[in-house]
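Subgroup meeting minutes
Present: P.N., E.W., G.H.
Scribe: E.W.

1. P.N. recapped why we're keeping a running log of single-chain structure predictions: easier to compare across weeks, and new members can see raw inputs and outputs side by side.
2. G.H. added today's entry (276 aa).
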Amino acid sequence: MELWYTEKQTPNYGITAKIKQTLHTETTEFQDLAMIDTVEFGRMLVLDGCVMTTIRDEYVYHEMISHIALSAHPNPERVLVVGGGDGGVIREIIKHPTVKQAVLAEIDGRVIDVSREYLPEIACALDDPRVDVRVIDGIAHVQENPTTYDVIIVDSTDPIGPAVGLFAREFYESIARALKPDGIFVAQTESPFLNGELITRVHGDIASIFGVTRLYLAAIPTYPSGLWSFTIGSKRHDPTVIADPARTAALTTRYYTPELQQAAFALPRFVADLLG
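Output recorded in log:
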C-alpha cells in the first residue's frame, strides 16, 4: 500500500509526496506538528498542514533569507531570528565570522526539540556558543529590546495562527526600533503567484517605515508555486551591494552566490507590478 501526504496550498491546488514513514506527530500548545520521511524530498517538517522545510531543498530558503541581509551589512555582530525553530537560519548566520551573538526567538519549543531529533543537518548549529536559543514570543522580544540588533530575520510560518502578528505593520515598526541605526531586517513574504495582495500590503508597510525597501526572489520547489519572495527593510545599506566581498566570498553555500546579491532583486514584471 502506498501512502501519500498532500498539502492543500490553496482550496484548489496542492502538492503531494509519497511517504516512506511517519516519524512523529503531536499537537503542541500552538499548532499541529508532524515529521514525515518522503521518497522525493527526504524528511519533511509540517506545521498545521503546511510544509516548513525538507532535507532536499531547505538550503535554498535558509541561505537566501540569511545571506542577502548579512552580506549587505558591513559588520553584523548581533543577529535575531524570529521563528526558525528548525535552526536552519541560525546555521547560516554563524557562517559569518563577524557574528558575536545569534538569538533564536521561537515561540514553540517543540519545534526546536523535534528538529534537533529528526533534522540534525539543519539544527546542527543550535549548540554553537554564539547561539542563544530562547523559547519566547518573538514579537514581545522585539518590543522589549530597542536599538539592540544589527540584523533581524523573520523566519515565520504562513500568516495563520501564531504567525499572523508577524505580518503586521505594528511588528515592522517594533523591528525598526529594535535595530541599530544602520540595521537591516528581512522577512519571508510568501508566493507572488498566490499571495500578491499580501506582498503588496507588506511592501507598502515596510516602505513607509524603512529608508530602503526591496523585494527579491528564490526558487523553492516545496513552497507554494515554487517561487518565493523575501522583503528587506534597511535603514541605510543598499541590500543589492555586498559590504565585505571577502567575507561573502568565503561563505560555503549551495544556492546563494555573491552574484545573486544583485541578481535576486531583478523581478519579473508581474512581481514588480505588485509593488506599485
